[in-house]
Amino acid sequence: MYGNLLKTLAIATLVCIMTACSVPDTIMENGAITLKGDAVTLHLISAPRAVIHADGSFVVDGKSIAVTPAERALLVRYYQSVHAVYETGVAMGKAGVDMAAKAVTAAASSSTDKAAADVSGRVASLSQDICKDTAAIKAVQDQLAAQLDAFKPYAFIVSASDVTGCQTDAKD
């Protein structure tokens, strides 16, 4: 139990540390998706860099892509789903800090196991939330690929196996 908890705590602490630095707010899919401020950047070796802004604007290789209102709404949902992963990561980092504080406080009492179990449950719930957000990214990605030709090169960044793997890992 504590091995997985410590692994999750280490990841959460790293996310917390990263949010205070000048690095991207969120890095996903081995760097293929990054969030920095109001922009999600898609990085692939096989395609030019693409940027989705919070307002739904879409830029590929430095050129603005014309989008319909429906496509813009999907692009906004994509941005929001990536941003939700960031927000959940921050919450996990805070839970990790909370766990460390409770562990120090509980060290002198017999409540150490209860404190660890409470935070562990919160982290497990947040892990499930990240999986839901990842599934939302996949769903929007699929819709964008079907509707927006300029998005097709980025249609495979989040795969069904990524979502399944996330759900499996979150259960452990």
Structural overview:
It is a single chain. The protein is an alpha+beta fold and 172 residues long. It has one domain (2-20, 68-171). 60% of the residues lie in helices and 15% in strands. It is built from four helices and six strands. It has helices at 2-19, 69-106, 112-147, 160-171, and strands at residues 26-28, 33-36, 39-44, 47-53, 58-60, 63-65. The chain has a six-stranded antiparallel beta sheet. β2 (33-36) and β3 form a beta hairpin. α1 (2-19) packs across α2 and α2 (69-106) packs antiparallel against α3. The longest helix is centred in the middle third of the chain and has 38 residues, at 69-106. It is elongated, with a radius of gyration of 18 Å. The model has no long low-confidence stretch (mean pLDDT 83).
Can you give me a brief rundown of this structure?
Residues 1-22 form the signal peptide. Helices cover 60% and strands 15% of the residues.
> How does the helix and strand content classify structurally?
alpha+beta
Envelope shape: elongated
Helix percent reads 55-70%
Mean pLDDT equals: 83
What Rg is obtained from the alpha carbons, in whole angstroms?
18 Å
List the helices and strands in order.
Answer: HEEEEEEHHH
Number of strands: 6
**Number of continuous helical runs:** 4
Uncertain runs = none
Largest sheet: 6 strands, antiparallel
First CA to last CA: what distance?
9 Å
Strand order of the largest sheet: 1-2-3-4-5-6
Number of domains: 1
- Give the amount of beta strand, in percent: 15-25%
Keywords: Signal
InterPro entries: DUF2884
Protein name: DUF2884 family protein
Signal peptide: 1-22
